[in-house]
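seq/struct pair 1
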Amino acid sequence: MRIAIDAMGGDFAPQEIVAGALDAARADASTHILLVGDESAMRALLPSPFPANLELVPSTQIVEMDESPSHALRAKKESSLAIATRLHAEGKADACLSAGNTGAASAFALFTLGRIKGIDRPGIATVFPTAGVPCIVLDSGANVDCKPQHLADFALMGAAYAPAVRGIIPEQAARHAGQKVTVGLLSIGEEDSKGNELVKASREGIAAVAPRAGFEFVGNVEGRDIPKGTVDVIVCDGFVGNVVLKLAEGFANLFLGGLKDALLSSPQSKLGALLLAPALRRMRTRFDHSGFGGAALLGVKGNCIICHGSAKAKAITSAIRVAKLVVEAKVPEAIARAAASNPTLKDEKTKDGNSGSQNEA
């Protein structure tokens, strides 16, 4: 398997991107990693010799984190992000990955790889740790203004992606093998009457898609259902999803930081921490969002993984593992089949017309 990585995108690029790619290459010789970026900068960060399954692909431009997607598309055709995406489009890589500018990464994927027929807007599917099977929240930032048919798209795509996500925790995947994927609509209450106009208008479309796409729609769910693992997929617009994502990350860091301070606050607590160390490490591993890697951009004709801008080496290594799961599960093909089997969804789009362009959070 070949994965193209934008080595120059992200708050800690290229150091952390290269380190994560190197760890992944050393761990799995069957994965061939194409690191795209400033060759001299990348080479300076690698041992000599470096693994044979790690290849450097030179680029001459960088898409900055605050650069507009439209400008990047016009002016940065030889950037590390553009070349990594192009390598995938040309069949020289099975997936592409970036921790850089989310809007630009989405735009390059959409215009280079193309959109799956029947899907109006691609969405970012973020995986959250839960008490059970990891939960997908979709959309988590690609589309801040949505219409009901977009949320129906997200439900369909999330359901197609969920079996691959279960593979992140193999024991959970085995436990839920053969079970129908469950999808919920994020709202302020479980009752059908709760929610804003978008939520209320989306219920009928998602319910119509469910039997054809093969998932179970459970209706409204609340924010607290995410950590509970109540459903496999939670659907919302990108504005709400991005707020949920960043709030969850902030609280996770607050909790882990507070726990560390408490355990180191006295000699007695330090002794207790020493005794609890194995259990605490297991807990941290389970709930550390960096262990879930990047978020898949669903709805494009390819396998595109978008990482958090602050991703460090561990998150990049995990994202490469997620990219492999997406490729092996043939997620774009599953989405295309589900979209083709949903005339109701396509008819609704025909009535509404073109929904407009994407927005990045």
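seq/struct pair 2
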Amino acid sequence: MKLKLVPFAVICILLSLNAQTKRTIGTVDRLHPELDQYISPGAEIEILAEGFGWSEGPVWVNRLDAILFSDVPANKIYRWDEKNGLGVFLDPSGYTGIAPRGKEGSLNAENRDESGSNGLVLDANGQLTICMHGDRRVAKLEDWEKKSFSTIVGKYQGKYFNSPNDLVFAKNGDLYFTDPPYGLKKGDEDPLKELDFNGVYKLTPSGKLSLIIKDLTRPNGVAISNDQKTLYVAISDPKDRRIMAYDITSKGVENGRVFFNDDALPKGDQGNFDGLKIHPSGTVFSTGPGGVLIITPQGKHLGTIRTEQKTANCAFDTKLEYLYMTTHMYLTRIKL
């Protein structure tokens, strides 16, 4: 077999074209050397896809070898993978018309705004569980081919939820989810709002639903520590940006305290505390002012992945090779 040598000039052109197709954004703000344990020096924030109204809720799915994420205003879930790039996975994703919304309650252009899916998570069996803003319910994808889903829970004491936002499964199967009013056009003042609070709930595998927190203005992202003892809840209220921590008990939670707030952060940073993910080390990766903050379980801020845009949520792939981030109109990632 005769080998053909590629001219050096051609190699240079190919490398140049590859460099041009890779787009990056932002920087990494390293406050402590420990950050190098998570993000190597020189790591860049790569733009994978763009053009979204508000990207949210990323989750890595092994069976697809892809990241799924929501575009809330577009009422769609997208998928992205290395081989095929970007594609629509589910449309509609969060509003199908089963709950009151607007005067007509139809899937017209006006009612699509902020009505799609938000948080996404996989249960222990690998089934996709979805926070549906427009339908005001938590649902499960029943069929990956036909894209059919069923309601897991849609009401509390006979009243519609506000708009389930983010969710996490405990190892024992309990599902925790937050319910701010972001999916309602007028928020707390929306005439369709049936609950006079914005709660955090627990749903057991047997179907028992309980309200475990009701005194938060804007409960948003939610996560559980690796030892299953602590529930983290991000508060996206711009007037009181913080992350709360609670001790998990058999009856719910107790001992609520501030885990982290924005007191020591630059005052001009955009964004509120939103999505949360827990690294195997226990370190918290939280979207918030400036991008994605890396915070130890003791509350020490190691640094920030500064994305230049308000960043809603983040997710690890199974191999912990990348952190994927839903960054406003972008899907981004950084090498871990």
